Amino acid sequence: MLLGAHCSIAGGLHEAPKAGRRIGCDAIQIFSRSPRMLRNTRPITAEEAELWRQSMAENRIREAVIHTNYLINLASPVKRLLKVARTAFVEEMERAQVLGVRLLIFHPGAHKGKGEAKGLRAVAESLDECVERADAPDVTLCLENTAGAGTSVGHKFEHVRGILDLSRHPERIAMCFDTCHAFAAGYDIRTRPGYETVISLLGETVGFDRVRAFHLNDSKGDVRSHLDRHENIGKGKLKKAAFGFLVNDARFAACPAVLETPGDDAAFRRNLKTLRSLVA
To answer: Is 70 a catalytic residue?
Structure first.
């Protein structure tokens, strides 16, 4: 795995790879815009994109992924809100394309009481529209599994499979596996047999070739709690063994795997040290 962390773009996009190098990252995750505002964002300039590429090379970051805005709900049953979400998602895709970032990680959204089937269909239709509208041919859309709180979709592997099957462009869709979310949704990977059972199901349902990125987070909540609360590696309910299984799984050796754990850069460094200590 290409281990790393989520890095701030404060001071400009080119500052994130510098932060990644200070932390000790092989890979980084960024927001390319504010994660909590849906207003139109000015485009990334050619100069900003070039500074980003230079910084990635100079700081020896092997891969970057982008996480989309948290407010985008591609499953919204409200037409006006769905239109806003799709427009914002197209912007996210095009920003990734300009930066040369190949993986765009997103939360699928919530059906708001209309049922999982309608929610999954709305997500698939949203992704199809965005793929067809966006000038972003090199960007793969990585659906992040969720913890299953409220009416969110994506907390079951079958949901990911359903979106793939409903989409006109399944070749453009992949998955980001979040350890905290999976555990909170009921996928218990704390023991070797449990890990093998869950990962085998993932392969059978979604396909290993679709799993392109990971979020490595311990969990404050217990299994099936549906609580989306991240904890430092080894300090939560998941414990270290689960992460040992993952970082040594050859099937995912080429995947970027980033921390979203609490704390500052020093905490990220400690967590990365813990993860690397688990590598056989």
So the answer is: yes
Please say if 80 is a catalytic residue: no
- Look up the domain containing 153 and give its range: 2-277
pLDDT of residue 40: 66
Task: Work out the pLDDT band at 37, boundaries 50, 70, 90.
Answer: confident
Q: What six digits make up the tokens of 194? A: 């449990």
For 187-209, what is each residue's pLDDT tens digit?
A: 999 999 999 999 999 999 999 99
Query: Using alpha carbons only, how large is the chain's radius of gyration in Å?
Result: 18
Write down the pTM of the prediction.
Answer: 0.95
- 169 is an active site residue: no
What DSSP string describes 261-277?
-SS-HHHHHHHHHHHHH
Candidates 26, 231, 260, 265; catalytic one: 260
* Active-site residue flag, 14: no
d(CA 6, CA 265): 10
User: Is 232 strand, coil or helix?
Assistant: coil
State the catalytic residue, choosing from 144, 155, 212, 218: 144
CATH code of residue 225: 3.20.20.150
How do residues 68-119 score in pLDDT, each as one tens digit? 998 999 999 999 999 999 999 999 999 999 999 999 999 999 999 999 999 9
CA atoms within 13 A on the CB side of 245: 18
Structure tokens of 68?
A: 């989309």
- Single out the residue of 225, 216, 221 nearest to residue 178, CA to CA: 216
- The answer to whether 269 is a known catalytic residue is no
Look at the chain and report how many structural domains it folds into: 1
Pairing of strands 211-216, 230-231: unpaired
Residues 6+ apart with CB under 8 A from 3: 25, 26, 27, 216, 247, 257, 258, 272, 275, 276
**Is position 129 annotated as part of the catalytic site?**
no
Catalytic member of 36, 39, 42, 80: 36
Structure tokens at 208: 């290993």
